[in-house]
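Reopening closed ticket. The problem is back. First fold of the pair:
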Amino acid sequence: MPTGCLAPCSFGIERADVAEPGDTSKPSETGVTIGGGQRSDAELIAAVRAGDLASFAVLYERHRRAAWRIAMSLTRSPEIAEELSAEAFLRVLRALRGQRGPTDAFGGYVAATIRNLYFDQQRRDRDARVRVVHNDLVARDDAAEALDAVEERAMVLAALATLPERWRTVLWLVEVEERPLFELADELGMTPNAVAALAYRARRGLREAWLRQLRIRARGVLAALAIGVSLLVLAAPDDAEWAPSGDVLRHIRAAVTER
């Protein structure tokens, strides 16, 4: 955005070219000679469309303070209001030079451009915040899934370690290496049916061992919960309505011992 345009802003126009031809008005307090007293906005706009950039400088001086006040009412920041109004004037100039934009009511068109710029930026900022929150939630979900996967593998390995070596061997050969039963029968010195039966018993043993690991894990969670609730009870005032009751503690402790 152009900056510093609340003060004289020529948009690339030399100061000597700012005054309207034939105008004898005095320079403004900004040092820019202001014309346009004899010409309407519509006439000045038509002149800009025809390539007379000095006429746009007249329009700018005529409407810049009102534009700044509108931007200020939206942003509540003098610096941002100045940048916003300057960007609006620049866009209107580009539109006129491209034979677009207003044919009259220049001030209203600038005001609408300021509002559009402001609310477009607000939408972009909001979308950016939404993306940040979404990415954060996705990252948390991914981290939680990764942690669950690590814990699951740890439980499976712990369960596998409790099995007899013969069961671990047949599970590896059948489930991981996917070796056919007839091939394993020769290698293990067993019939294919015996290998199948051994694999069945190993799978059932692994499932039961995994369930035991799951119960151990649940017991640990409940024990931690019981400790946390106990600390709450100790820290709570005697008349606290939110303090856990003794029944809550008894239920948790019973769940821990049952498992």
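Second fold of the pair, where the issue appears:
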Amino acid sequence: MNKQILRAAAKQKRNQLTKEQRAQFSKNICEFILASPDFIEAKTVMCYCAYGSEADISPVLEQALLMDKHLLLPKVYLLEGSIKALEIKDIAHLHINEHLCTGAYGILEPNEQSCEVVETQKIDLVLVPLIAFDKHCHRLGSGMGYYDKFLPLLRSDCKKCGIAFAQQEIEKVPAKAYDIALDYIVTQDGVYINRTR
């Protein structure tokens, strides 16, 4: 099936969740993440700021800082067609101010004037937002290709974790041979693990 049709259908299911459902499901997702050994042991974690009806993982961002982890957030570089990981160093920086501002596509992202770029090889765990996924941990993103370019730059032992609501699961993501499947995907109902790794 066409990727655009799959994206539209998955996004519609996500958008149909009530505000209360999204809040509860997001809380469940955060609990799974915070209890995972990969998060607990990671020194450098890349997260994201939720946009629209995406799962809100802001408690994970705050906890990462409270645990003295290096917290990174993606910044879109439109001219390069890429994202880079910039470090947020304080909980106070997680609010719209000189450190966090509305960037490309209306998504909150770090301000490169006050936040430093961190090399991808230093990242231990990356939490990836997505539009749809299948049971084999293949992801369907927004279609812009930012994470498709970013994920191959990570260390081979860096854990790649997709974040989604269970309603976003589809039967099969049309993946190419070069597409990188995630290590696992966390939903409010549990964790899908990539058994091929």
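Update: turned out to be a display glitch only; the data is intact. The first strand starts at residue 44 and ends at 46. The domain at 3-193 is CATH 3.40.50.10420 (Rossmann fold). Please close again.
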